[in-house]
Amino acid sequence: MSIVIDELFIGQIARLKRVFTDEDVKLCNELTRDFSPVYHVNENVWKKFYDQPIVPGLLTEGLITQVISQKLPGDACILLQKELVFYYPVHVGDEITAELEIIDINETRNWVTQRVSCYNQQGNEVVKGQVVILILPKQSS
Question: Cβ(125)–Cβ(87) under 8 Å?
Fold first, then answer.
C-alpha cells in the first residue's frame, strides 16, 4: 500500500497485532547484546519480579514501526521522533495490538504526527506515546 501525504487525514487509524515468543526475545537479545536478567537470561532474577520473562521494549517498538512501514503511511518515510511510555511489561506469549492514529499533518514539512497506543490481550494499555515521521516524496518511475 502506498500513500502520499495529501491522502492522509487526521483521525486515520491503523493497527497490527503480534504475539511475542521466546525465540523473538532470544533473537532480540543476540542482535542488541542486551542480556538483562529480566528477559530469559536468568530465571532466578526475573522470577523475583514477574511470573514470566518480559519482552524487550525494542520488540514492542518494532511492532509500532511495522504499523508505520506497512500501513500508515505504508510508504517510504523516516522516523524523526518518538516519545513512548511503557506502563506495563509485555510478557512472552502476550498478544499486543499497536494502534496508531494521525493527530497532526504538516504538509509544508511533510511531517505526520501519530498517537501511539499498544494494548495487551486483556485490553491493558502497555505503551502510550507519539511519533513524528517524515513522508518522503514520491519518486517518478
Answer: yes
Least confident stretch, 88-92, 94-98, 114-118, 125-129: 88-92
Closest by Cα among 116, 135, 113 to 126: 116
> What's the rounded Cα separation, in Å, for the pair 110 and 105?
8
- pLDDT, one tens digit per residue, over 19-62 is 999 888 888 888 878 777 666 655 666 667 777 778 889 899 99
Spatial distance between the Cα atoms of 119 and 86, rounded to a whole number of angstroms: 11
Q: Could you say which DSSP state residue 38 is in?
A: I
pLDDT of residue 42: 59
> Around Cβ 128, how many Cβ atoms within 10 Å?
15
Task: Report pLDDT for 29.
Answer: 81
Q: Which residues pair with 72 in a beta bridge?
A: none
The full DSSP string for 44-88 is HHHTTT-SSPBPPHHHHHHHHHHHHHHTSS-SSEEEEEEEEEE-S
Q: Model-level pTM?
A: 0.86
